[in-house]
Predict the structure.
Amino acid sequence: MTNTSEALAANMNLSVFSKATELKSRLWFTLLALIVYRLGTYIPIPGIDPVALGELFRQHGGGILGMFDMFSGGALKRMTIFALSVMPYITASIIVQLLSAILPQFEALKKEGESGRAKLNQYSRYLTVAFAFVQSWALAIGLQNMMGGGAVIIPGGFFIASTVATLTGGTVFLMWLGEQITARGIGNGTSLIIYAGIVANLPHALAQTLEQGRTGALSPWFILLIGVLVFAVLAICVACERAQRRILVQYPKRQVGNKMYGGDASHLPLKINTSGVIPPIFASSLLLFPLTLASFTNLQQKGGWAADLVASLGHGKPLFMILYAALIIFFAFFYTAVVFNPVETADNLKKYGGFVPGVRPGKSTADYFDYVLTRLTVLGAGYLVLVCLLPEFLMNKGAIPFYLGGTSLLIVVSVTIDTISRIQSHLIAHQYEGLLKKSKLRNK
């Protein structure tokens, strides 16, 4: 038998959406904020030669720069004010989250509730400014040194200072814009900004693929195979991202005065992919960094064992695939252990009187959570390896003219699912408000 929320969700239609004025205002705010972001990805920083910059990315775009350019929606390739996108903020947030699981001071702040989370967010902002400053400084120095400084019209200290100020300010603005989307819009603002950048590149990538099919560079059957595989991988991503193991949690009855309270049952949902998109991002960044460094230093032209090692780390190479899979599995288990603490979860259940039927509270419950989560993580790591290695194989064998990464597919699917679920929550809340108003009118 369905509960009230499920019945309301089943009855949602276009008329319900048209009456949800708050939801519509949130959607409009989110859309306008993303339009502002996309406009900023076309405003170039001063002192850059676009022709030389395009040649630079043609030579070095296969490494980590190509992945970061994908996350920035092409802003890095055009060297605009949003070239760094929100990657410094994401890096800072991940580091603060890791510190909250390692350092007792940060762990204490995490347990303080809303005030502690506000302090941790403030630390993330400070760390974002520091990362953006360092990355923009390194990028400005690199532009001056690469290709004999041809990408910079007037090299010097003024170019470095203006570039650092512009890129750091752009990152801080995007951080603020993402927080505004989270508070006044729909969904997680930072994730939506990355999502918009990835989706914005899809029409150009599709046009490139069709053009190569028209000229005969790619077989029409191969293009059809790519389309079928993309839809199949998307279906797998949707199924695995929504899949979860629901552990039954029972709360005993207790008597307060003449009334009985409790006796309810709920579920503790454990996702198959608890770590999200963090393992592919970390793994690809570590593997692509040597390739990018080698392309900047012309290591492959010098020859030797180092050049052979870097060549074997290219996209689709056997060594790259093996290391990529191993790093994804490692980071899947590592980050899952960071974001979910079985001992803390078991202690919280015991504190509020909850228990898993058939399992003793305390250490036995923590061991049971660890047992279930370990086996779920094995499935989740295998799913991440499959989704991330299949595009690498296609890019190597079929010479696809764009970067088709499993990380981008995971981000698109997870952000879409999260946004849709938030929209449904707002619609259900609106219907509840309507039912309450009707019941008040009837009582009068």
Q: What stands out?
A: The first strand starts at residue 244 and ends at 250. Residues 98 and 338 are 7 Å apart (CA to CA). The domain at 1-201 is CATH 1.10.3370.10 (Preprotein translocase SecY subunit). Residues 1-9 have pLDDT under 50 and may be disordered.
